[in-house]
Amino acid sequence: MSRLLSRQHLAAVRRSAPFACVSRWLHTPSFATVSPQEVSGSSPAEVQNFVQGSWTASANWNWIVDPLNGDKFIKVAEVQGTEIKSFMESLSKCPKHGLHNPLKAPERYLMYGDISAKAAHMLGQPTVLDFFAKLIQRVSPKSYQQALAEVQVSQKFLENFCGDQVRFLARSFAVPGNHLGQRSNGYRWPYGPVAIITPFNFPLEIPLLQLMGALYMGNKPVLKVDSKVSIVMEQMIRLLHDCGLPAEDMDFINSDGAVMNKLLLEANPKMTLFTGSSRVAEKLAADLKGRVKLEDAGFDWKILGPDVQEVDYVAWVCDQDAYACSGQKCSAQSVLFMHKNWSSSGLLEKMKKLSERRKLEDLTIGPVLTVTTEAMIEHMNNLLKIRGSKVLFGGEPLANHSIPKIYGAMKPTAVFVPLEEILKSGNFELVTKEIFGPFQVVTEYSEDQLELVLEACERMNAHLTAAIVSNDPLFLQDVLGRSVNGTTYAGIRARTTGAPQNHWFGPAGDPRGAGIGTPEAIKLVWSCHREIIYDVGPVPESWALPSAT
């Protein structure tokens, strides 16, 4: 089949109104091959790969254990190193100039606007929203409200790129030349074959938004999602196929890290988007010779300014930022710099009480999928060796649960460390070590110690999110002007978490930094600039051969 969209395919996509995709859904989505409520050790689900237009299995099945009880409940067809040939061949079929670009197959921009419209409508159906929210909960346990919000953000993103909005991403510009017939045109150009690697904590939102951004701009992506949660995106790809996504436009691979690394080195995609740990990000950057965009780890800070107000609200936001999704957000509040004026406000006691509301029964606290309980306890004990440090609340494993030991199970925890001690050599690296779980460091500063707070922020290596909680305009101006985090919230309602579809989410201070969700993010990550200078004449009648120069 041609890589370009056929007129017949385009017509079929455009004829099928959004309602046609969902009219037959009364109870179970038609695309679904699993039922979230039924996936269990006694009724395991299977996850397949998708390559060159077909769903395929593998000679190797990797069992995923239920994070709540340890049962083997999902088996994933993980591609082995000897099985990557079909994925390499698929990527090689896409030229460097992409499946479409402003001068080739522009009707595909319209097609993706239509696909987005239908997918947004489908994902907005209550049955489908509930399906994905509950499937997310099964593999990456979080409260229903948190899981549902992830699906709703994904749905709103698709709504944002309906109709003409996809082709608007490829908007070009022209500049007059030096003489008649000359002009320069700037275009947003795809990379062609690309790769996307995404983590476990947002099984739908991160891979879907990056996948669609890559497709919108004319690339052909191979997508790898952490195998622990890849069942969510497998089901979403089936939904997209129902909405008209051409089968040959993307591939979906399940594998371990070593096999994916081998595929990247041998298939040589022209750009790879990686979301995950800093350690893996740096390895990929070296292996792929810089052809990467990264949204890696975030040790995210929050500064409470001198103006104390709305204490109940600020305490609630601090609790949400640090402990929602059991702290497994790259934007989670890692360290809280609290102006001494807040000490007498009761803030810490309110935060403690809010943290104690969280319980495993409703998944407002739950399994930590990448850090064991022992590792979190060890980190806490190392912090407690610092002079003046103490546990503010938490500090204990969860009780009465069946979470397997390969995962973590920890009460929401806060450890106080004096500011002067944080900045000492040896302590700083320990304090600013990211613990991807329900764990934060709290410290206090006085009016004349703001410089020390800003020094700490300057010395951190990760610059993803930050919050400056104050309505003092001069304080905000000072801190904002001397910080760098790519997604910074400012004002009394400021938070560190939140990656909605309506604003940029990504780090700053790194030329490899990737964004997500907005037109600016899509253009930055999934296209490059190309300039074409037209010079068609006429050659002036008075032109004569000049002297050699």
Automatic annotation (TrEMBL):
One Pfam family recorded for the sequence: Aldedh
Keyword NAD: yes
Residue span(s) of domain Aldehyde dehydrogenase: 64-489
EC numbers, comma separated: 1.2.1.88
InterPro entries, per database record: Ald_DH/histidinol_DH (IPR016161), Ald_DH_C (IPR016163), Ald_DH_CS_CYS (IPR016160), Ald_DH_N (IPR016162), Aldehyde_DH_dom (IPR015590), ALDH7A1-like (IPR044638)
Keyword Nucleotide-binding recorded: yes
Gene Ontology MF terms in the entry: aldehyde dehydrogenase (NAD+) activity; L-glutamate gamma-semialdehyde dehydrogenase activity; nucleotide binding
Binding residues for NAD(+): 198, 224, 261, 277
Record keywords: NAD, Nucleotide-binding, Oxidoreductase
Enzyme class at the top of the EC tree: oxidoreductase
PROSITE patterns on file: ALDEHYDE_DEHYDR_CYS
Assigned protein family: Belongs to the aldehyde dehydrogenase family.
Protein name: Aldehyde dehydrogenase 12
